[in-house]
Amino acid sequence: MNILCQSVSRRSVSSTFWRRALSSKVYKSAKEAVADIPDGATLCVGGFGLCGIPENLIGALREAGPKNLTCVSNNAGVDDFGLGLLLQTKQVKKMISSYVGENKTFERQYLTGELEVELTPQGTLAERLRAGGAGIPAFYTPTAYGTNIHEGGVPVKYNTDGSVAIASAPKESREFNGRNYVMEEGIVGDYSLVKAWKGDTDGNLVFRATARNFNPDCAKAGKVCIAEVEELVQPGELSPDDIHLPSVYVNRIVKGERYEKRIERLTVAKPEGAAQETKNAKSSSRDRIVKRAAKEFRDGMYVNLGIGVPTLASNHIPKGMSIMLQSENGLLGMGPYPQEGKADADLINAGKETVTYVPGSSIFSSSESFAMIRGKHVDLTILGALEVNQYGDLANWIIPGKMVKGMGGAMDLVSSGNKVVVTMEHCSKTGAPKILKSCALPLTGKKVVSLIITEMAVFEVSPTEGLTLIEKAPEVSVDDIKAKTEAPFKVSENLIDMQQ
After folding, report:
1. Which of 203, 274, 316, 457 could pair with 247 in a Cys bridge, judged by C-beta atoms 3.0 to 4.6 Å apart?
2. Cα–Cα distance for residue pair 168/152, rounded to 1 Å
3. Rounded distance between C-alpha atoms, residue 314 and residue 404, angstroms
4. How far apart are CA 131 and CA 413, in angstroms?
5. Other CB atoms closer than 10 Å to residue 174's CB: what's the count?
6. Active-site residue 328, yes or no?
7. What is the mean pLDDT of the chain?
8. What is the pLDDT of residue 279?
């Protein structure tokens, strides 16, 4: 009876009252919206690269000047844009990120001990944010099992002399149904800073294209969510079916004053009839690898292609075959590069290159993207490597003390349990073998590689039996391959020349 009375009573109150109760979410400026963020706050910041970042809120935060911030964000911006602006002014004490390769200020501050860094696999980061916002304190994931992210020892902070001041601690692991998993904790921030395309004054948000990325996950993970939007409308102007993030997650909303929407890697299609690249030994080797990788495609596959050489394999999809390319920043059905003048800052791939849609494309958040990957809904992953060992261990994300880029989504992709194909040159620039008995660099995944394709050879990989040479380049002998391969391998009885 009381419940019924309360329900009737609420309905009898005019809609004007409820509008008034919610109207306090609207702030006049970004400066006003971030004014109470204190020193030492933890911020969950949306965006992927420079796509979908809260430009105005970051600028206002730089002006406000809080120090010793912990920023949870997939990337750290670039030196003069995005979170790079807060690194310039040394307002950030710690970053929790997955990929920071384009920020030299970040790299310098990390390697000289000015900045603490917790590098986290991209899918794990998205799920930690999603879990935090959903009230889930921890979860298990196969990602990073057997790597130093699991076992500990990753430098979190360096001393000024280059020695390690703080190293990451080991993480709990557990076996489920014969498979090993790592426990990760959810993330809850003091504030979240996110950017949407449209929002209403109640706080309902609509994102545009791949600018959605980490924004919904970050929004949910903050105790106080501050959203900036390009267009602010009245309640009712957005169809309920079109809303991507309900108002319950948003505490403050502000219309952005201006947007640069900088494109990190403007990439366009070559005009028809454009001069072809002059062939040299390196490009010929690359073409051979790419064409062979394309032979792994099967009609109807969902495929994730890594940055660089693997992406080029999409140029060699056989006529009549249909595959859907998945990009881990939240795009299924990735199309070719746009024509000159048609690039869209809100539509990029995981390499931050401008792309297009194809018929049947769909867009989703970062956590949804990695749910597809982790849940074995993506059939094939092709990516590069620095080293691979004879049982399929893969290293491709860091050279300690030298190269600090982060693992991005690679650890999640290779730990999915789906087919993983590595494409790489057979030897390093110095001529050293890259197919080894044991990887010297920190691992991306343990016993995860199914097939290795180089300009010299194709190896099948067994996690228990090791390598089997199944194809070779026509101009090389088995002895040539042995001379440039540290790991032992068997030769298939059905050895053939490399398929093209």
Report:
1. 203
2. 5
3. 28
4. 20
5. 10
6. yes
7. 93
8. 58
